[in-house]
């Protein structure tokens, strides 16, 4: 296989990142923008020892599972890696990705369960009873327009127009994406107003290249149930000239609840800085999950897909198996979403989270919802929990973890095992690190019982998972 060679490839599999995989003369190639079942004409762009990469030139025979990507810039943007795959197959792709990671990385005896999640009782073979089901992905009714949050860089496009969108691959140019199909319809009007305000008052966007300019990103959050809107401009400075005029223009839009600035003067690709300056409102919006109302500040984490979040937390609640008597810990608790969702069914819940504003939100959320049996702690879960355990020697009945992509810290897992909970519920956004942690827990007396993928990110390759784990 040589670079620049043109080959015909039948796509037989897909990688975790959503690239099609097919063989040319027995040599595996990863090819972006192809889906399982396509026959494609491909140009080889990179050759390694045992595999290579190809660029799609032409689809010769489309896969029966291929659909036309509705977004005209899907290929350039790359945020929706699965747009060309039917939604049904996307859900299957995610179930398989989770299964594959748990098997390969976690060494777990998992199998792909069929569409009716059933109890593997006596009716099944005894070997099957030891196997762990990975259930079919719980999907969305409408996998479009679901995101409640958008963070767009601001800058100039190739023609020198001021736009908001995404960075064109490996450049400092921005491609306009002001009406993303997985984002809220309201974003477009908001972005139009911010950009025209910037043009009218000659406010420069920040340049990654030079570190000059003011406006870096526009962050928008919309409360799904409440319709409340937050607009936060991330700026390379401490004030926005004519900020009052921006407020006036944005307030003409419905639902505008919070308008603020976030100060980020570092030369970094981290989007948000620490300081928030309010221009209008209290500095947060509200939304509901189930019948609990949450206040959400700009720097607080909140799941991006509100409808699926409710399904995910309902699963977590089911797996927690609460009767009202349990002591529960919710680690990586954010604004207390899972904690408060569980609190009404438990004796008490204690949450730990690293972002101080999120804990302020969590405490406020408990109070606003009349929940008195929840306490929250600021700090790293892997430091706070061991410290409290050392001091109190406390036990837990159920522990929930919901870490960021890198998974749980080893010190945290060790403390969890010492606290001897009957059950652990693991909510994960990365099944590779989940697999690593489940393997460790398995070696320390905690058996994985079942695995439920939930699709929070339709059109994209990421997959959320909820796992029930029990003490042997
Ligand atoms: N359970 C919440 C938040 C999950 S996201 C929800 O469903 O909304 C993961 C959270 O972990 C984020 O809020 C992040 O700020 C927090 N976090 C990241 N590293 C952490 C650490 N080492 N200790 C505690 N919290 C951490």
The number of distinct β-strands equals 23
Rounded average pLDDT: 95
Radius of gyration: 24 Å
CATH T-level topology of the largest domain: Rossmann fold
Class of the largest domain, according to the CATH hierarchy? Alpha Beta
Describe the biggest sheet?
7 strands, mixed
How much strand?
A: 25-35%
From the N-terminal CA to the C-terminal CA, the straight-line distance is 51 Å
CATH architecture of the largest domain: 3-Layer(aba) Sandwich
Shape assignment? globular
The residue fraction in helices comes out at 25-40%
- Chemical compounds bound to the protein: S-adenosyl-L-homocysteine
Poorly predicted segments: none
Which class do the helix and strand fractions yield? Answer: alpha/beta
Strand neighbour order, sheet with most strands: 10-9-8-11-12-13-14
Number of domains: 3
Assign the CATH superfamily of the largest domain.
Vaccinia Virus protein VP39
Number of helices: 11
């Amino acid at each position: 296989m040589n670079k620049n060679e043109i080959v015909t490839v039948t796509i037989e599999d897909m990688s975790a990142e959503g690239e099609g995989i097919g063989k040319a003369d027995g040599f595996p190639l990863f090819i972006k923008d192809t889906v399982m079942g396509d026959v494609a004409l491909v140009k080889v762009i990179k050759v390694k020892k045992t595999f290579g990469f190809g660029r799609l030139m032409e689809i010769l025979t489309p896969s029966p599972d291929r659909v036309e990507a509705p977004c005209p810039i899907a290929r350039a943007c790359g945020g929706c890696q699965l747009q060309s795959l039917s939604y049904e197959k996307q859900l299957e792709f995610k179930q398989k990705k989770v299964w594959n990671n748990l098997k390969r990385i976690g060494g777990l005896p998992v199998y792909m369960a069929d569409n009716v999640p059933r109890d593997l009782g006596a009716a099944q073979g005894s070997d099957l009873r030891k196997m762990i089901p990975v259930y079919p992905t719980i999907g969305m009714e409408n996998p479009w327009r679901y995101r409640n949050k958008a963070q767009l860089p601001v800058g100039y496009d190739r023609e020198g127009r001021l736009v908001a969108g995404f960075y064109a691959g490996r450049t400092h140019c921005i491609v306009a994406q002001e009406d993303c199909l997985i984002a809220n319809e309201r974003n477009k009007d908001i972005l139009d107003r911010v950009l025209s305000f910037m043009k009218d008052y000659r406010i420069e966007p920040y340049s990654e290249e030079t570190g000059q300019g003011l406006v870096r990103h526009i962050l928008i959050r919309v409360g799904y149930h409440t319709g409340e809107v937050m607009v936060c401009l991330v700026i390379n400075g401490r004030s926005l000239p004519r900020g009052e005029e921006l407020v006036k223009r944005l307030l003409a839009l419905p639902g505008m609840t919070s308008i603020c600035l976030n100060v980020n003067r570092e030369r970094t690709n981290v989007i948000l800085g620490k300081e928030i300056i309010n221009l209008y409102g209290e500095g947060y919006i509200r939304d509901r999950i189930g019948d609990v109302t949450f206040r959400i500040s700009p720097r607080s984490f909140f799941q991006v897909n509100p409808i699926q979040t409710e399904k995910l937390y309902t699963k977590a609640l089911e797996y927690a198996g609460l009767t009202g008597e349990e002591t529960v810990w919710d680690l990586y608790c954010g604004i207390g979403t899972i904690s408060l969702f569980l609190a009404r069914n438990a004796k008490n819940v204690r949450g730990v989270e690293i972002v101080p504003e999120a804990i302020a939100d969590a405490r406020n959320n408990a109070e606003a919802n009349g929940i008195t049996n929840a306490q929250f702690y600021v700090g790293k879960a892997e430091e706070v929990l061991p410290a409290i355990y050392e001091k109190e020697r406390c036990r837990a009945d159920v522990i929930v973890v919901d870490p960021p992509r890198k998974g749980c810290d080893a010190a945290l897992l060790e403390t969890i095992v010492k606290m001897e909970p009957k059950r652990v519920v693991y909510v994960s956004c990365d099944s590779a690190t989940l697999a690593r942690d489940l393997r460790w827990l398995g070696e320390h007396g905690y058996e994985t019982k079942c695995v439920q993928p939930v699709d929070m990110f339709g059109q994209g390759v990421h997959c959320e998972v909820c796992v029930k784990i029990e003490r042997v």
